[in-house]
Amino acid sequence: MSDPDRGVWEGMLGYLRTQHPTVCRQWFDEIEPLGIIAGMMHLRAHSMVHKEYLRRSCGDVFREALQSVTGHLLGIRFVGPDESIGGPEEGAGMLTHRAKENGFASNGVRSKAGDLEPPDTLAINPDYDFSSFVVGPSNRYAHAAAMAVAGQPGSSYNPLFIHGDVGLGKTHLLQAVCLTIRRNNPDAVIHYLSCESFVTYFTEAIRANQMAQFRHWFRDVDVLVLDDIHFLASRERSQEEFFHTFNTLYQANKQIVLSSDAPPEEIPSLEDRVVSRFKCGLVTQVEAPDLDTRIAIVKSKALQRGLLVPDDAACHVATRVTRNIRELEGAVTKLQIAASVEGRPVDLDLAIDALGGEPRTGGSGPTIQLIAETVADFFNVRLTDLQGKRKPRSIAQPRQIGMFLARRHTRHSLEEIGGFFGGRDHTTVIHAIKTIEGKASTDAQLSALLAELEQKVAKVK
Questions:
Q1: Residues 218-244: pLDDT tens digits?
Q2: CB distance 217 to 106 below 8 Å
Q3: Which of 60, 130, 256, 312 has the lowest tally of Cβ within 10 angstroms?
Q4: Range 144-168 burial, b when 16+ CB lie within 10 A, else e
């Protein structure tokens, strides 16, 4: 590649990082620029999954960056690790090529007049690998099962049924299974799509009298992954067809992976025989992550974007966002935008400005000293005990509450709070916050006690 072309690529990366920071990923540095050829900037991705993700999700912003840097109306073409840059361009002739990338060209399916187009598959995000999945008490069994399925598809836990509320990591696990199987066996035929697409394609196949093609597409596979299988509820004909598709795959030892927002027996209007099929393998749940896991997720999501988030800022995000991982990712996006727009590093102050939170100011708010004194007076213990090394229950819980309140009402870092309460490290403070937060959610007496203390702390502002 010539130096001018390399300069264009480096300019594009700079443009993307300033104008579209939320699009950028660390692995963009691994993209190989091949130069501008015949009016197209050719960029080589290091895997077909990465190439397909770039093509589906990044084409417009990459083209914008290229045209901004060069001042010319040039196009973008992404190629895989083994593809020639002289191959077919996007558009004509790409249907079979795209089919191969998505795993169904090996079936020998070709679109011809009167045939149904293949259904829309879900894009696989290369960020959603097992290596980036944060394991905690809320998801360790589902993670272990997904790892086993990815290592030996068709022999371990078939089907694998993962259920849980929205935004808790089910899709991440499904995509990690697909990515691992694809990496271990590039020729495997994997179909990953939503249950809604299955139902829609089934309806279209009936209307077009193309059920043979429908069954060929869904049954001649090595792995079938369906997201949101609860969409089958109350759809009797679709359930009937899926029942037979399931049986065909299961009897051929082909892997089936399903996700749902509810366990099989709680999906309304689902036939007993379908419920029975879903439960013949492994049914496992993902739950809301605890504080430690949320903090680790924030740091992991940020690192994927090349963003370093210190512990106290990550803790602030994790205490502000408690419901699901999708919202945590949205919070990281806010941090990234704020850091880019304001030209500031990510720290606790930026996290508070971007996400809000309890007022924490150096002058008008309570000091950590006043908070500790208020807690000591409330529990009738000595301040020196809160700051000491002793760990009896009569001291341990007031100390944890003091750390919890100091974290909510001051701008002190985790390290500073731990240092004030007896020279403890930041992990102890995180544990204290997690403990008090968890107990208060189930203990009405503790919750009322905290509310009273909050009022007392507010009076010293």
A1: 999 999 999 999 999 888 899 999 999
A2: no
A3: 60
A4: ebbbbbbeebeebbbbbbbbbeebb
Pair 320, 357: CB distance under 8 Å: yes
DSSP state for residue 254 in the 8-state scheme: -
Per-residue pLDDT tens digits for 365-381: 688 888 988 999 999 99
Do the beta carbons of residue 268 and residue 180 sit within 8 Å?
no
Cβ–Cβ under 8 Å, residues 243 and 271? yes
The side-by-side arrangement of strands in the sheet containing 282-285 is: 190-194, 223-227, 255-260, 160-163, 282-285
Tokens encoding 90:
């996007």
Question: Which residues neighbour 281 within 8 Å (Cβ) at sequence distance 6 or greater?
Answer: 157, 158, 159, 160, 161, 256
Partners of 226 in the β-ladder? 193, 258
pTM, two decimal places = 0.72
The whole-angstrom separation of Cα 341 and Cα 329 is 18
Structural domains in the chain, sorted by start: 3-90 (3.30.300.180), 130-285 (3.40.50.300), 297-355 (1.10.8), 368-459 (1.10.1750.10)
Q: Are 176 and 146 in contact (CB under 8 A)?
A: yes
Spatial CA neighbour of 159 closest among 220, 230, 225: 225
